[in-house]
TrEMBL record:
Protein name: Threonine/serine dehydratase
BP GO annotations: isoleucine biosynthetic process; L-serine catabolic process; L-threonine catabolic process
Stored InterPro entries: Ser/Thr_Dehydratase, Ser/Thr_deHydtase_PyrdxlP-BS, TrpB-like_PALP, TrpB-like_PALP_sf
Coiled-coil intervals: none
Domain Tryptophan synthase beta chain-like PALP: 24-313
Family label: Belongs to the serine/threonine dehydratase family.
Organism: Croceicoccus marinus
Cofactor: pyridoxal 5'-phosphate
Cited Gene3D superfamilies: 3.40.50.1100
Pfam family, any one: PALP
MF terms in GO: L-serine ammonia-lyase activity; pyridoxal phosphate binding; threonine deaminase activity
Amino acid sequence: MKSPLAIGPRDVEDAADIIRGVAVRTPLLRFPFLDERTGRQVLLKFEGAQIGGAFKFRGAYNRLARIREEDRAKGVVAWSSGNHAQGVAAAARILGIPATIVMPADAPAMKLANTRSLGAEIVLYDRDTQSREGIATSLAQNRGAVLVPSYDDPFIIAGQGTAGIEIVEQAEEMGVEIGQVLVCCGGGGLAAGIATAVKDRLPRTAIHPVEPAAFDDTARSLRTGRRVTVRPGARSICDALLAPTPGALTFPINKALLSEGLAVTDGEVRAAMRYAFEVLKLVVEPGGAVAVAALLAGKAPPSDKATVAVISGSNVDAALFADIVGAA
């Protein structure tokens, strides 16, 4: 009987085969000072070391590599505030596929510049008055291009899940038992992929999505059992995690596999970014810092085994970063 879920463990394993030798096997790091600060054993999966500076390259390459050779000249179209944009642009450049990315006009300048430098065409939109999905869909239809969603696509979800395979394998290599994984959550693709991979190999491991407090739609959806939306007027510095509602494909997976959702304030995110820079010597973007923020703020559930926190990316504007890490 076919599973009602968009992907299963085998899909993540297939994605791992596709990206092997192209994507970076990012490090799983341990810092004694962090263990001491949190009173537990912590491992950090640092996706800032991935191509494009975030986990998004995994899913993007897995998706684009599946496009038939005869269809590649028509290109791909995606929408993103920055990390998916860079992942798609990088994958498209490697595979020789033209890429067009619909990005908000107020996206971080570094993400815009990096996407352009990878050869992608950028189409700007106003996130308050225009629909990025509508613009991207229209462009793809007019050009005959392949539409590449940022999370609601089976190949994207499976590609992101390869980080989960690495977490399990690297922890085993270190001789560490994992009790829980904290992973940032916007549309839910990374959480769904990692949960699919980790729960297959370590079924008793809890996977907790972490969101900005104003964008806790996944946590609330998990509690109610149905997809809910972000409250009107919500704002957060976590530009990578501003999806208005869980994905249609990602939520059924997350509903089946995730444990309780956690939420952190922008202040807690800023504190985590400062801690990462000053103590761990890591550059972390706001959306990438939420799992560490949950740990430092004492919001992660207790665990007698190691806690893995996924740092999803390191793409942050220099001015914003300087403002955050320089604050008292």
